[in-house]
Amino acid sequence: MNIIRTAMLLAFMTALFMAVGYLIGGAHGMLIAFLVAAAMNLFSYWNADKMVLRMNNAVEVDERSAPEYYAIVRELARRAGLPMPKVYLIDNPQPNAFATGRNPQNAAVAASTGLLERLSHEEVAGVMAHELAHVQHRDTLTMTITATIAGAISMLANFAFFLGGGNRENNNPLGMVGMLVAVLVAPFAAMLVQMAISRTREYSADQRGAEICGQPLWLASALDKIARNVERIPNPEAERNPAMAPLFIINPLSGERMDNLFSTHPNTENRIAALEEMARKGMGSGGMTSRDVNARPSAARDTTPRGESGPWGASKPSEPDSGPWGRKPTGPKGPWS
Protein backbone atom coordinates (compact mmCIF):
# COMPACT_ATOMS: atom_id res chain seq x y z
CA MET A 1 0.00 0.00 0.00
CA ASN A 2 2.80 2.45 0.87
CA ILE A 3 4.56 1.64 -2.43
CA ILE A 4 1.37 2.38 -4.36
CA ARG A 5 0.90 5.62 -2.46
CA THR A 6 4.48 6.70 -3.19
CA ALA A 7 4.02 5.91 -6.89
CA MET A 8 0.80 7.94 -6.98
CA LEU A 9 2.50 10.90 -5.30
CA LEU A 10 5.39 10.78 -7.76
CA ALA A 11 2.91 10.61 -10.65
CA PHE A 12 1.11 13.64 -9.21
CA MET A 13 4.37 15.59 -9.03
CA THR A 14 5.12 14.72 -12.67
CA ALA A 15 1.67 15.88 -13.72
CA LEU A 16 2.10 19.06 -11.67
CA PHE A 17 5.38 19.77 -13.41
CA MET A 18 3.79 19.36 -16.84
CA ALA A 19 0.87 21.57 -15.81
CA VAL A 20 3.20 24.36 -14.67
CA GLY A 21 5.03 24.22 -17.99
CA TYR A 22 1.72 24.44 -19.80
CA LEU A 23 0.56 27.42 -17.72
CA ILE A 24 3.78 29.32 -18.31
CA GLY A 25 3.64 28.35 -21.96
CA GLY A 26 7.38 28.20 -22.50
CA ALA A 27 8.26 24.74 -23.76
CA HIS A 28 11.93 25.66 -24.10
CA GLY A 29 12.07 27.21 -20.65
CA MET A 30 10.41 24.14 -19.18
CA LEU A 31 13.02 21.88 -20.76
CA ILE A 32 15.94 24.04 -19.59
CA ALA A 33 14.59 24.23 -16.05
CA PHE A 34 14.11 20.48 -15.89
CA LEU A 35 17.61 19.77 -17.21
CA VAL A 36 19.25 22.18 -14.76
CA ALA A 37 17.28 20.81 -11.80
CA ALA A 38 18.08 17.25 -12.87
CA ALA A 39 21.80 18.07 -13.11
CA MET A 40 21.80 19.62 -9.64
CA ASN A 41 20.04 16.63 -8.13
CA LEU A 42 22.22 14.15 -10.03
CA PHE A 43 25.24 15.76 -8.41
CA SER A 44 23.51 15.52 -5.03
CA TYR A 45 22.61 11.89 -5.67
CA TRP A 46 26.26 10.92 -6.22
CA ASN A 47 27.69 13.13 -3.48
CA ALA A 48 24.91 13.60 -0.92
CA ASP A 49 26.19 10.83 1.37
CA LYS A 50 29.62 12.45 1.72
CA MET A 51 28.08 15.89 2.17
CA VAL A 52 25.63 14.78 4.87
CA LEU A 53 28.23 12.80 6.79
CA ARG A 54 30.64 15.73 6.66
CA MET A 55 27.98 18.22 7.84
CA ASN A 56 27.32 16.00 10.85
CA ASN A 57 31.03 15.50 11.63
CA ALA A 58 30.50 11.75 11.33
CA VAL A 59 33.53 9.48 11.77
CA GLU A 60 33.74 5.98 10.35
CA VAL A 61 34.17 3.15 12.88
CA ASP A 62 34.98 -0.54 12.64
CA GLU A 63 35.11 -3.72 14.72
CA ARG A 64 37.94 -2.41 16.88
CA SER A 65 36.71 1.12 17.59
CA ALA A 66 33.02 0.26 18.16
CA PRO A 67 32.74 -3.55 18.38
CA GLU A 68 29.18 -3.90 19.72
CA TYR A 69 27.66 -1.24 17.46
CA TYR A 70 29.48 -2.59 14.39
CA ALA A 71 28.48 -6.18 15.18
CA ILE A 72 24.80 -5.24 15.45
CA VAL A 73 24.85 -3.55 12.03
CA ARG A 74 26.69 -6.51 10.50
CA GLU A 75 24.17 -9.04 11.85
CA LEU A 76 21.23 -6.94 10.68
CA ALA A 77 22.74 -6.51 7.20
CA ARG A 78 23.21 -10.28 7.02
CA ARG A 79 19.59 -10.88 8.02
CA ALA A 80 18.39 -8.35 5.43
CA GLY A 81 20.56 -9.84 2.68
CA LEU A 82 22.38 -6.53 2.19
CA PRO A 83 26.07 -5.77 1.65
CA MET A 84 27.77 -4.50 4.80
CA PRO A 85 27.36 -0.70 4.82
CA LYS A 86 29.93 1.72 6.14
CA VAL A 87 29.27 2.49 9.80
CA TYR A 88 29.63 5.97 11.27
CA LEU A 89 29.38 7.64 14.67
CA ILE A 90 28.29 11.23 15.26
CA ASP A 91 29.48 13.01 18.39
CA ASN A 92 26.11 14.43 19.39
CA PRO A 93 24.18 13.98 22.66
CA GLN A 94 20.82 13.90 20.87
CA PRO A 95 19.85 10.27 20.19
CA ASN A 96 19.21 9.88 16.47
CA ALA A 97 20.33 8.00 13.38
CA PHE A 98 20.12 8.08 9.60
CA ALA A 99 21.10 6.17 6.48
CA THR A 100 22.53 7.58 3.29
CA GLY A 101 24.04 6.38 0.03
CA ARG A 102 22.75 6.02 -3.50
CA ASN A 103 22.26 2.23 -3.39
CA PRO A 104 22.87 -0.78 -1.11
CA GLN A 105 26.40 -1.20 -2.50
CA ASN A 106 27.33 2.36 -1.51
CA ALA A 107 25.34 2.76 1.69
CA ALA A 108 26.30 4.17 5.06
CA VAL A 109 24.49 4.20 8.40
CA ALA A 110 25.21 6.66 11.18
CA ALA A 111 24.17 6.81 14.82
CA SER A 112 24.84 9.50 17.39
CA THR A 113 26.75 8.91 20.59
CA GLY A 114 23.56 9.94 22.37
CA LEU A 115 21.74 7.02 20.76
CA LEU A 116 24.34 4.49 21.94
CA GLU A 117 24.44 5.97 25.43
CA ARG A 118 20.70 6.25 26.04
CA LEU A 119 19.29 3.18 24.29
CA SER A 120 19.71 -0.51 25.05
CA HIS A 121 21.38 -2.95 22.66
CA GLU A 122 17.94 -4.16 21.58
CA GLU A 123 16.64 -0.66 20.90
CA VAL A 124 19.77 0.23 18.93
CA ALA A 125 19.21 -2.93 16.85
CA GLY A 126 15.64 -1.79 16.12
CA VAL A 127 16.87 1.65 15.02
CA MET A 128 19.61 0.31 12.77
CA ALA A 129 17.19 -2.21 11.23
CA HIS A 130 14.97 0.75 10.32
CA GLU A 131 17.90 2.52 8.67
CA LEU A 132 18.87 -0.61 6.73
CA ALA A 133 15.26 -0.81 5.54
CA HIS A 134 15.71 2.64 3.97
CA VAL A 135 18.80 1.29 2.22
CA GLN A 136 16.96 -1.81 1.00
CA HIS A 137 14.01 0.25 -0.24
CA ARG A 138 16.36 2.63 -2.09
CA ASP A 139 14.59 5.55 -0.48
CA THR A 140 17.50 7.84 -1.33
CA LEU A 141 16.73 7.27 -5.00
CA THR A 142 13.01 7.90 -4.45
CA MET A 143 13.65 11.16 -2.65
CA THR A 144 16.16 12.26 -5.31
CA ILE A 145 13.57 11.79 -8.06
CA THR A 146 11.08 13.73 -5.96
CA ALA A 147 13.56 16.53 -5.35
CA THR A 148 14.38 16.70 -9.08
CA ILE A 149 10.75 17.26 -10.04
CA ALA A 150 10.14 19.67 -7.16
CA GLY A 151 13.28 21.62 -8.07
CA ALA A 152 12.17 21.87 -11.68
CA ILE A 153 8.75 23.18 -10.60
CA SER A 154 10.35 25.81 -8.37
CA MET A 155 12.72 26.85 -11.14
CA LEU A 156 9.85 27.25 -13.59
CA ALA A 157 8.03 29.37 -11.03
CA ASN A 158 11.10 31.60 -10.68
CA PHE A 159 11.31 31.97 -14.46
CA ALA A 160 7.65 33.00 -14.55
CA PHE A 161 8.15 35.53 -11.74
CA PHE A 162 11.27 37.22 -13.10
CA LEU A 163 10.29 37.12 -16.76
CA GLY A 164 6.79 38.38 -16.12
CA GLY A 165 5.03 35.44 -17.65
CA GLY A 166 7.44 34.39 -20.33
CA ASN A 167 6.74 34.61 -24.03
CA ARG A 168 3.32 36.14 -24.75
CA GLU A 169 3.19 34.21 -28.01
CA ASN A 170 2.74 30.98 -26.05
CA ASN A 171 -1.01 31.83 -25.62
CA ASN A 172 -1.38 30.96 -21.96
CA PRO A 173 -5.10 30.01 -21.82
CA LEU A 174 -5.56 31.12 -18.19
CA GLY A 175 -3.75 34.44 -18.40
CA MET A 176 -2.76 36.05 -15.09
CA VAL A 177 -4.62 33.43 -13.04
CA GLY A 178 -2.51 30.70 -14.63
CA MET A 179 0.67 32.63 -13.89
CA LEU A 180 -0.30 33.06 -10.22
CA VAL A 181 -1.00 29.34 -9.94
CA ALA A 182 2.39 28.55 -11.49
CA VAL A 183 4.32 31.01 -9.31
CA LEU A 184 2.60 30.58 -5.94
CA VAL A 185 0.54 27.40 -5.76
CA ALA A 186 2.59 24.85 -7.69
CA PRO A 187 5.87 25.10 -5.64
CA PHE A 188 3.87 24.92 -2.41
CA ALA A 189 1.99 21.85 -3.64
CA ALA A 190 5.28 20.22 -4.67
CA MET A 191 6.69 20.83 -1.17
CA LEU A 192 3.63 19.18 0.41
CA VAL A 193 3.99 16.14 -1.85
CA GLN A 194 7.68 15.85 -0.94
CA MET A 195 6.78 15.81 2.73
CA ALA A 196 4.02 13.27 2.16
CA ILE A 197 6.44 10.94 0.38
CA SER A 198 8.93 11.31 3.23
CA ARG A 199 6.26 10.35 5.78
CA THR A 200 5.19 7.37 3.67
CA ARG A 201 8.76 6.05 3.43
CA GLU A 202 9.14 6.24 7.22
CA TYR A 203 6.14 3.96 7.75
CA SER A 204 7.53 1.49 5.21
CA ALA A 205 10.96 1.54 6.86
CA ASP A 206 9.38 0.92 10.27
CA GLN A 207 7.58 -2.15 8.97
CA ARG A 208 10.57 -3.57 7.11
CA GLY A 209 12.93 -2.74 9.98
CA ALA A 210 10.71 -4.72 12.36
CA GLU A 211 10.81 -7.63 9.91
CA ILE A 212 14.60 -7.50 9.66
CA CYS A 213 15.22 -7.65 13.40
CA GLY A 214 12.08 -9.70 14.03
CA GLN A 215 11.20 -7.63 17.11
CA PRO A 216 8.77 -4.74 16.45
CA LEU A 217 8.72 -3.72 20.10
CA TRP A 218 12.47 -3.03 20.07
CA LEU A 219 11.92 -0.31 17.47
CA ALA A 220 8.74 0.92 19.19
CA SER A 221 10.60 1.39 22.48
CA ALA A 222 13.46 3.13 20.67
CA LEU A 223 11.13 5.57 18.90
CA ASP A 224 9.52 6.51 22.21
CA LYS A 225 12.89 7.18 23.87
CA ILE A 226 14.29 9.11 20.92
CA ALA A 227 11.20 11.30 20.56
CA ARG A 228 11.23 12.23 24.25
CA ASN A 229 14.93 13.07 24.19
CA VAL A 230 14.77 15.05 20.94
CA GLU A 231 12.29 17.43 22.56
CA ARG A 232 14.86 18.53 25.16
CA ILE A 233 18.26 17.93 23.54
CA PRO A 234 19.14 20.21 20.60
CA ASN A 235 20.98 19.14 17.48
CA PRO A 236 23.04 22.19 16.38
CA GLU A 237 24.15 20.64 13.07
CA ALA A 238 20.55 19.89 12.07
CA GLU A 239 19.44 23.37 13.16
CA ARG A 240 22.06 24.89 10.87
CA ASN A 241 21.06 22.58 8.00
CA PRO A 242 17.31 21.89 8.40
CA ALA A 243 17.18 20.24 4.97
CA MET A 244 18.81 17.22 6.64
CA ALA A 245 15.83 16.68 8.94
CA PRO A 246 13.98 14.15 6.73
CA LEU A 247 17.02 11.84 6.85
CA PHE A 248 16.80 11.14 10.58
CA ILE A 249 14.61 8.48 12.15
CA ILE A 250 12.96 11.21 14.29
CA ASN A 251 12.83 14.86 13.26
CA PRO A 252 15.88 16.38 15.02
CA LEU A 253 14.53 19.94 14.91
CA SER A 254 11.47 19.61 17.12
CA GLY A 255 9.11 17.00 18.55
CA GLU A 256 6.32 16.90 15.97
CA ARG A 257 3.10 15.73 17.56
CA MET A 258 0.82 15.55 14.52
CA ASP A 259 0.69 13.80 11.16
CA ASN A 260 0.07 17.10 9.39
CA LEU A 261 0.75 18.34 5.89
CA PHE A 262 3.89 20.19 6.97
CA SER A 263 5.65 17.42 8.90
CA THR A 264 8.53 15.47 7.39
CA HIS A 265 7.95 12.54 9.76
CA PRO A 266 4.81 10.67 10.83
CA ASN A 267 3.44 11.11 14.31
CA THR A 268 5.58 9.03 16.66
CA GLU A 269 2.57 7.65 18.55
CA ASN A 270 1.09 6.43 15.27
CA ARG A 271 4.35 4.70 14.36
CA ILE A 272 4.55 3.03 17.77
CA ALA A 273 0.91 1.91 17.53
CA ALA A 274 1.57 0.31 14.13
CA LEU A 275 4.59 -1.56 15.51
CA GLU A 276 2.64 -2.73 18.56
CA GLU A 277 -0.08 -4.02 16.23
CA MET A 278 2.56 -6.00 14.33
CA ALA A 279 3.72 -7.52 17.63
CA ARG A 280 0.15 -8.44 18.59
CA LYS A 281 -0.25 -10.27 15.28
CA GLY A 282 2.68 -12.52 16.18
CA MET A 283 5.47 -10.73 14.36
CA GLY A 284 8.78 -11.46 16.07
CA SER A 285 8.91 -15.23 16.36
CA GLY A 286 12.18 -16.47 14.94
CA GLY A 287 13.70 -12.99 15.08
CA MET A 288 16.78 -11.71 16.83
CA THR A 289 17.12 -12.25 20.56
CA SER A 290 18.75 -10.22 23.30
CA ARG A 291 21.62 -12.71 23.22
CA ASP A 292 22.22 -11.86 19.53
CA VAL A 293 22.71 -8.16 20.22
CA ASN A 294 24.41 -8.44 23.61
CA ALA A 295 27.00 -11.02 22.57
CA ARG A 296 30.48 -9.52 22.46
CA PRO A 297 32.27 -10.06 19.12
CA SER A 298 34.97 -12.66 19.63
CA ALA A 299 37.60 -10.66 17.75
CA ALA A 300 37.08 -7.67 20.02
CA ARG A 301 37.07 -9.91 23.09
CA ASP A 302 40.43 -11.39 22.16
CA THR A 303 42.22 -8.12 21.40
CA THR A 304 40.92 -5.65 23.97
CA PRO A 305 42.04 -5.41 27.59
CA ARG A 306 39.55 -6.19 30.32
CA GLY A 307 37.40 -3.59 31.92
CA GLU A 308 34.69 -1.31 30.58
CA SER A 309 34.60 0.31 27.14
CA GLY A 310 32.61 0.21 23.90
CA PRO A 311 29.32 2.01 23.47
CA TRP A 312 27.65 -0.13 26.17
CA GLY A 313 30.49 -0.95 28.50
CA ALA A 314 32.44 -3.77 27.01
CA SER A 315 36.12 -4.05 27.95
CA LYS A 316 37.89 -0.86 28.98
CA PRO A 317 41.37 -0.09 27.65
CA SER A 318 44.18 0.52 30.08
CA GLU A 319 44.59 4.03 28.62
CA PRO A 320 41.93 6.71 29.24
CA ASP A 321 38.96 6.60 26.89
CA SER A 322 38.30 9.49 24.52
CA GLY A 323 34.65 8.57 23.95
CA PRO A 324 31.86 6.44 25.44
CA TRP A 325 32.38 3.80 22.74
CA GLY A 326 35.95 3.18 23.85
CA ARG A 327 38.13 4.69 21.14
CA LYS A 328 41.70 4.94 22.43
CA PRO A 329 43.53 8.28 22.32
CA THR A 330 46.27 6.67 20.24
CA GLY A 331 43.78 5.55 17.60
CA PRO A 332 42.16 7.56 14.77
CA LYS A 333 40.97 10.92 16.00
CA GLY A 334 37.45 12.30 15.71
CA PRO A 335 35.75 15.56 16.65
CA TRP A 336 35.29 14.30 20.24
CA SER A 337 39.00 13.54 20.82
From TrEMBL:
GO MF entries: metalloendopeptidase activity; zinc ion binding
Gene3D superfamilies in the record: Metalloproteases ('zincins'), catalytic domain
Subcellular location per the Swiss-Prot or TrEMBL entry: Cell membrane
Cofactors: Zn(2+)
Residue ranges, annotated region (Disordered): 282-337
UniProt: Zn(2+) binding residues: 130, 134, 202
Lipid bilayer topology: Multi-pass membrane protein
Cofactor binding notes: Binds 1 zinc ion per subunit.
Single GO cellular component term: plasma membrane
Peptidase M48 domain: residues covered: 68-278
Pfam families assigned to the protein according to its UniProt record, in alphabetical order: Peptidase_M48 (PF01435)
First-tier enzyme category under EC: hydrolase
InterPro entries: HtpX_protease, Pept_M48_protease_HtpX, Peptidase_M48
Keywords annotated in UniProt: Cell membrane, Hydrolase, Membrane, Metal-binding, Metalloprotease, Protease, Transmembrane, Transmembrane helix, Zinc
GO terms of biological process kind: proteolysis
Membership in a protein family: Belongs to the peptidase M48B family.
PANTHER family in the record: PROTEASE HTPX (PTHR43221)
This protein's name: Protease HtpX homolog
Gene: htpX
